[in-house]
Amino acid sequence: MRSELVRLRRRSTVVGWAGLTALFAALVCAVVFQVVEQAGAAGVSAVPDGPGVSFPDAAQLLSPAGLVAPLASGASFTGVVTLAFWALATATDSSTGLVRQLVAAEPRRGRLLVGKWLALALVTAATTAVAVVVTVAVAPVAAAAGGWEPTAWGEDVAGTVLRAGLDLYLSQLVWGSAGLALAVLTRSAGVAIGVGVGWVLLVEAVLGALSRELGDWLPGAVLGALAAGGTDRVGAGTALGLGALYVAVALSASLVVFSRRDVTD
Questions:
Q1: Average pLDDT over every residue of 109-114
Q2: Band (219; pLDDT cuts 50, 70, 90)
Q3: How far is CA 90 from the centre of its chain?
Q4: Considering only 111-115, 206-210, 254-258, which range has the smallest mean pLDDT?
Q5: Dist CA 7 CA 100 (whole Å)
Q6: Mean pLDDT, to the nearest integer, of 25-45?
Q7: How far is Cα 211 from Cα 158, in angstroms, rounded to an integer?
Q8: pLDDT score of 2 more than 60
Q9: 220 and 239 in contact (C-beta within 8 Å)?
Q10: In contact, 169 and 125? CB cutoff 8 Å
Q11: Which residues, in sequence order, are CB contacts of 185 under 8 Å at separation 6+?
Q12: Is 39 or 176 the better-scoring residue by pLDDT?
């Protein structure tokens, strides 16, 4: 875990990961308040969701949790960023040949892979904190620009922010674990990232349009519910349980493949 953290603290990784997370958090925050405000002015009670984003309604934005509602709205976008960096950190071991030296230094491959997962989980906690800070800073400005007066935002601010940050972090761990598993299985960061982006922007959008019932139970939608602390259609407990199952399956598959793979080729 310590050796992996040395690699992850490189400037390119820190700036790229934190920068993209902050950018998406700020953009989604600005868009949410503008889109919902325009929908309300047009007399539309609900805003259609777009690929990778789930818009709250006006009542949710005006509630005490409205300050951090954009975190859940853009959880799939930040999730893809997390998936990408977990995949890059994993796949580069194979593409550079570093995996041979790592296995020689630590023959217990399970220990090696779990150490990588823990290191990436720690960095993900830091990037999640970046998303939370950016959202809390941008939300009041975006709300004012959209003509909102969310007087309830001053209620239980610390508890609301902490809960939202924890929910987002749990969803990011699932996204990251998926990226690690895809990178272990394919040894290609490009394939792993392509699958993640394609799933959110194409596959789930198409399947969700065909069947709302099916769309509510697809991985991206479940992780969106997890980031939101549960929704009317997918409860918090269900989302948490499915998220834990996804992580267990991803880690198990990764451990089996990595433990048995020939790394000398």
A1: 91
A2: confident
A3: 17
A4: 206-210
A5: 16
A6: 71
A7: 38
A8: yes
A9: no
A10: yes
A11: 253, 254, 257
A12: 176
More confident of the two residues 202 and 257: 257
Structure tokens at 20: 């993209």
In sequence order, the 6+-apart residues with CB closer than 8 A to the CB of 245 are: none
Residue type, 82: T
Angstrom CA distances, 146 to 37, 40, 69, 107, 133, stand at: 6, 11, 15, 57, 20
- CB proximity list for 236: less than 8 A, separation 6 or greater: 225, 226, 229, 230
**Displacement of CA 228 from its chain's centroid (Å):** 12
> Does the pLDDT at position 146 exceed 90?
no
Written as one letter, the residue type at 163 is R
Residue matched to tokens 């993640």: 196
Closest CA to 226 of 213, 242, 214, 247: 242
Residue 53 sits at φ, ψ, to 5 deg, of -140, 140
Mean pLDDT of the chain: 87
Q: Give DSSP secondary structure letters for the chain.
A: -HHHHHHHTSHHHHHHHHHHHHHHHHHHHHHHHHHHHHHHHTT-SSPPPBTTB----HHHHHSGGGGGHHHHHTHHHHHHHHHHHHHHHHHHHHHSSHHHHHHHH---HHHHHHHHHHHHHHHHHHHHHHHHHHHHHHHHHHHHHTT---GGGGSSHHHHHHHHHHHHHHHHHHHHHHHHHHHHHHS-HHHHHHHHHHIIIIIHHHHHHH-HHHHTTSHHHHHHHHHTT--SSS-HHHHHHHHHHHHHHHHHHHHHHHHH-----
Rounded to whole angstroms, the Cα distance separating 47 from 36 reads: 7
